[in-house]
Amino acid sequence: MTPAKRLENIRKEQDSYSSKVSETSRYIGYGLVAAAFSLLSRATEFSKGMEPFADNLLIWSAICGCVAVSLDYLQMLMGWLAASQAASNKPDYEPTKLGRTFVKILNVAFYSKQAVAVVGVIFLLIAIGSRVSVPALAN
User: What's the alpha-carbon Rg for the chain, to the nearest Å?
Assistant: First the structure.
């Protein structure tokens, strides 16, 4: 396999994983919002027994979910704008200065949505953990 072909395969794999990471971050964001609001509704016995401080964690978890989804949208929008800029830059279709700025914002959004999603999951786990008791650890 030639180095050029190997690089092409690596780029395809990189694109595939990038797409899966984006999709997973989006689903985590949706899940954080859904889980937080279902627990805040106090519709189940489990949620009725949660500690009062857990409400704040659940709200922060939902906020993280909303921010993660918003950052996902921002990433897609910046990608579209960067590609549109390059496509309209004839004759060589190179990115413009504005297009490179879009790509920088895209990269910040890509990494930020992952960080925000992880923080939201941690908030959610702490909130749920306030209700769960593990007998083996209680002794």
Answer: 21
